[in-house]
Amino acid sequence: MGVEGKERHRELETGAQVISGHLGKTIQRLRKAYNLSLSELAEQSGVAKSIISQIERNETNPTLATIWRLSQALDVSIERVLATSDEEPFIEKSTRADTPILLSEDGKVRLAIIGWLKTIEWLQWYDVQAEPGGVLDSDGHQRGSIECLSVLDGEFEVEVGDVIQRAKAGETLRYRCDRRHTVRAVGDTPGHATMVCILKAAVMD
């Protein structure tokens, strides 16, 4: 190999090391952002735990197939995984058609699931639209769960046990939702609110 060829080979090796270094940091950052352990990511991607660990420590140059499997498990494009900037922003867009809708039994309360479906087991976020008199009855969630209802328009009341509280636009009600609870739209105008349910809050004694 001539001098020029050796120089080109050195440049390619350096470039591969740079990409590999950024790749490891990106995989680790995304894995931690999704709160995944190495074992969980290995199970979801089909890539051995030891290989993922080596990638994150920049101790190996993974094949394109391995990168593709990891990107699928982390729900990101392969281009993003290969991006060389640690400061690349994460922006995900959901269209109206992508947003799941739930209806109360009386059909008067509409909940759009606007939170991230990946967090639904511990954090749920809804956009609530209610007709006057609409009622949303819910069974208790797991122990220690907390719900927050922030009113944007109209007026709502929340009943938990024998306690009832009302909130108008600009006000927020926070309450235990690990027991049966009811949200009602009161007044003569439609109600609009956001509801956040934290399913793994610390137990309140």
From TrEMBL:
InterPro entries in alphabetical order: Cro/C1-type_HTH, Cupin_2, Lambda_DNA-bd_dom_sf, RmlC-like_jellyroll, RmlC_Cupin_sf, TransReg_Diox_bact_type
User: What top-level branch of life does the organism fall under?
Assistant: Bacteria
Domain HTH cro/C1-type: start-end pairs: 27-81
Which Pfam family is an annotated match for this chain, by its short name? HTH_3
The record's CDD domains line, in alphabetical order, gives: cupin_XRE_C (cd02209), HTH_XRE (cd00093)
Q: Which UniProt keywords apply?
A: DNA-binding, Transcription, Transcription regulation
Q: Name the SMART domains for this protein.
A: HTH_XRE
Gene3D superfamilies associated with the record: Jelly Rolls, lambda repressor-like DNA-binding domains
User: What PANTHER family does this protein's entry cite?
Assistant: HTH-TYPE TRANSCRIPTIONAL REGULATOR, HTH-TYPE TRANSCRIPTIONAL REGULATOR SUTR
- Name of the protein in question: XRE family transcriptional regulator
The organism encoding this protein is Microvirga puerhi
